Amino acid sequence: MTTDIMSDMKETTTRHRVTLCVTGGVAAYKAADIARRLLDMRLDVKVMMTANAERFVTPLTFEALTGTPVIRASQWPEPGEGPMPHIDIARESKLILVAPATANIISKFANGVADDMMTTTLLASTGNVLMAPAMNTNMYLQPQIQSNIARLKKDGVSFIGPISGELACGVEGVGKLASVEEILHAVKERLNLSYDLAGKKIIVTAGGGREPIDAVRFIGNRSSGKMGIAIARQAFLRGADVTLIAAHCDVPLPEDFTVVRAMTAEETLKEVRERFGDCDILIMAQAVGDYRVMRAPDCKVRTEERMTLELESNPDILAQMGKIKEARILVGFAAQTHNLIPYGREKLKRKNLDMIVINDVSRSDIGFGSESNEVTVLKADGEEITFAKERKDVVAVKLLDLIKSEIDRRIDA
After folding, report:
1. pLDDT for 189 beyond 90
2. Which domain holds residue 280?
3. Residues catalogued as catalytic
4. Residue 324: inside a domain, yes or no?
5. Is residue 301 a part of any domain in this protein?
6. Is residue 304 part of a domain?
7. Domain boundary among 191, 215, 237
8. What digits encode the pLDDT tens for the residues 130-151?
9. Same domain (yes/no): 175, 65
10. DSSP string, 293-307
């Protein structure tokens, strides 16, 4: 295992990571199509191959498809490299898919054999393993193999197939790898994937706005961008065409969809306005500055004992979009410290929004920079929904569920 491979496994990613384990059977060639289709499902795919699998399909095939090095099951870390790559791979994988799964790998896994990178990774997994067997009929029907499969199923391992058909050996019978479509459907079920926002163009703004005082200093706020980025990521995973307009953020920006930087309110307005006509949904999670400095110089001003700043109001981006929204769905955010609901209702109406998400930033456990959030969503129809304190990615999922319900309501109306 090379250092490059291990560092790649630890990269932050927007996508759910699937490790595709390819073992040495004739059906190994179908794993290339599986890898490609998993990528089409917006999954982050890492491929691991046994030495025998490499005799059927070359690692170069999978590296070309996925753009990342293949993890060879026969390799172990060199001195000075990560000492436990199998633990890292198992921990980073939302799902380990073994396709094709030979009698050998099934038997090793069922009986706790750990003699290469693949078997140790399987044993280090926490249970989210899906196996797609492929082998000769007589091999598959052997009592030992059936016993091993039953043991793994009892332990929480999922199986898809095999199916009946003409096998590579020329025999008709059960043992053929399940179809690629069936395997992909099983992956979607295991990961609970939904692409219910496919075809929707969504703009999400995130982060804390920064308004310059001079060429060096600025007026800003404490927004970390975590909530907006979480919404953008979850929308992408549900199939949406996402554009993230980001001000200052304390966390890495995603690389799987379009990201545009816009630090000031004027810059954000410009970027939103350019894309608004072509979008279906605008979610303004960015903490846009309410004021900007009048006549901010382009150079650093001399520091005096006192400095007086003359401020003027920034444009209200959501209010402007609310005047021209037509059939688009507009969602705003309101970071408040008191009178949350009354202020929220006033903003919802004044800005002509479909929803407004209110959170109490006076609380340190859910305020700016925290990993969790607790919000109340007010809808234009008067409905009020409160999400209890949860991780921001969970809150993002629930908010997108509400937006999807609004889309469905309009279709049915």
Report:
1. no
2. 201-291+310-412
3. 169
4. yes
5. no
6. no
7. 191
8. 999 999 888 899 999 999 999 9
9. yes
10. ETT--SSPPPP-S--
**pLDDT tier for residue 412 given thresholds of 50, 70 and 90:** confident
Please report the DSSP string for 261-295 in residue order. Answer: E--SHHHHHHHHHHHHTT-SEEEE-SB--SEEETT
Q: Which residues have a Cβ under 8 Å from the Cβ of 188 and sit 6 or more positions away?
A: 41
pLDDT digits (tens, 9 = 90+) for 155-182: 999 999 888 877 776 777 788 899 898 9
Whether residue 162 has a cis bond before it, omega within 30° of 0: yes
Query: What are 120's two structure tokens?
Result: 């140790």
Number of Cβ within a 10 Å radius of residue 64: 10
- 187 and 205 in a single domain? The answer is no
What's the full length of the chain, in residues?
413
DSSP 8-state secondary structure symbol assigned to residue 26: G
Give the phi and the psi of residue 331 in degrees, each rounded to 5. Answer: -125, 125
DSSP for 28-60, please give it: GGHHHHHHHHHHHTT-EEEEEE-TTGGGTS-HH
Of residues 14 and 123, the one with the higher pLDDT is 123
First to last CA, the chain: 57
Residue 305 lies in a domain: no
Contact 179, 200 (CB under 8 A): no
Find the CATH number of the domain harbouring 330: 3.40.50.10300
Instruction: Give the span between the Cα atoms of 203 and 232, in whole angstroms.
Output: 8
Q: Does 406 lie in the same domain as 283?
A: yes
277: pLDDT confidence band, cut at 50, 70 and 90?
A: very high
Percentage of the chain modeled with pLDDT above 70: 93
Whole-number Å distance between alpha carbons of 176 and 15: 30
- Domain total of the chain: 2
H helix runs in 93-179, sequence order: 103-110, 117-124, 137-141, 143-154
